[in-house]
Amino acid sequence: MLELDDIQSGVLRPRPSPYVATYILLRIDDRSAGRELMRRLGSAVTAAAHPNSPIADCGLSVALTYHGLEALGVPEDSLDSFAWEFRQGMAARAKALGDDGESSPEHWEPPLGTSDVHVVLTALSPDQVRLEAALARAHAALRELGGVEAIWRQDCHALSTGKEPFGFKDGISHPAVEGSGIPGSNPHEAPLRSGEFVLGYPDETGGVSPMPQPDVLGRNGTYVAFRKLHQRVAAFRQYLKNAASSTEDEEVLAAKMMGRWRSGAPLALCPHHDAPGLGADASRNNDFHYSDDPTGYKTPPASHIRRANPRDASVAGVVRLHRMIRRGTAYGPELPDGVLEDDGAERGLMFAFIGAHLGRQFEFVQAEWLNAGEFLGLGEAKDPLAGAHDGTGVFSFPKRPIPRRLQGLPLFVVTRGGEYCFMPGLRALRWLGDLRT
Q1: Based on the domain organization, do 345 and 362 belong to the same domain?
Q2: Is the peptide bond before 187 cis (omega within 30 degrees of 0)?
Q3: 183 and 302: one domain?
Q4: What value, to the nearest 5°, has the Cα angle with vertex 424 and ends 30 and 220?
Q5: Quick one: 209 and 256 in the same domain?
């Protein structure tokens, strides 16, 4: 059984809808102050075991970078026991992730990707009042702690449409984790072994993956990849308008690229027209598979949702080894409907990818499923929405009598920065606070 009272709520519990969120980056300048912060956070962070507690709706989570663990004085042998991708950091892994050109670390928003980022605090709530309550707990933990400085903040909020900036319903898919008691959104998918997301438990291979040492530090923790992604909404709209034959055709092309209509209704269930009622129904909008659509006349193999989670496709034997928990929160103002010119505002998503295996989960999906196409026989074609395009991208989808082919895909999503983090269990936070090295 999962030790839910020791696992941070942010690992297992889906974000609320609607939501407001704040991300705060901290730098530890004094080791003693950093350890005291860990002790205080040990009692401020929300545990997954208490969904009905007074603080459950204003969850506070804490994660540390490799440089943060160094700043706390974690012993060298413990540091060496962390996953090597984590020790390198996201900026060093940029080439493997497709973060080049405009998305390369040299263009990232400071201090993202630098050794100054030590701690990531995340506060998440259904409304501003309860968010402020979560932030108050964080501020209380920081109060009078000289030697720990807040160096960056990103506020996020649900858009008035309830969708992400490109206009698609968000937050639909969530896998069930064995032992969590939290149902998944796809009834066709059996719960995944808990070791895929929480360290110290059996995973889909049947074994228990190596975890940071000592056990009190690694057990009930997980890895998190935070990404700030800027979305070029006007460019996406312009591309659809130029490629489509009508306003209706724009919506068809958008749905084919995503794999869903903007309402959230999946093409797998309504391939010819949108069905807003279906899109809004959480009990049905993720209840589908691809076994009856191998060619992709309904859901193109190259579409975003089919790439990110092929479900029961021919690669299904390995899909479960690459599943992740994905969380997204929107930032920036909405671009008004119909506007085709970029207004220069920063808008997009703060993404968090949660899993016990940075390499075979986050990095594999990013490199092999989103930025390559061999696994589905798509050659070098990238994800039409999230791929690292350079203006020469191609998106094709089956259509009778001949397939339809879109060319010249530009870069729609630009990486503004990111961090690889370790999200420890609550006992581990207290262990970090009690270090005496």
Answers
A1: yes
A2: no
A3: no
A4: 160
A5: no
What's the CA gap between 348 and 361, in Å, rounded?
A: 23
Sign of CA dihedral 181, 369, 331, 111: positive
DSSP state of 291: T
Residues 71 and 104 placed together within one structural domain of the fold: yes
Tokens at 218, concatenated? 């690694």
When pLDDT is cut at 50, 70 and 90, the band that residue 410 belongs to is very high
Task: For residue 149, give the H/E element and its range.
Answer: strand 148-157
Q: Which domain holds residue 140?
A: 4-227+418-433
The kind and range of the H/E element at 396 are strand 393-397
Distance CA 409, CA 392 (A): 6
Structure confidence by residue, pLDDT tens digits, 337-353: 999 999 999 999 999 99
Residue 296 in this model has a pLDDT that exceeds 50: yes
131-140, 168-177, 293-302: segment of lowest average pLDDT:
131-140
Torsion of CA 245, 310, 349, 222, to 10 degrees: 180
Q: Are the beta carbons of 267 and 261 closer than 8 angstroms?
A: yes
Indicate whether 274 and 385 sit together in one domain.
yes
Q: Quick one: average pLDDT of 217-244?
A: 98
Domains in the chain, number: 2
Q: What is the pTM of this model?
A: 0.95
- Tokens 């020790």 — which residue? 87
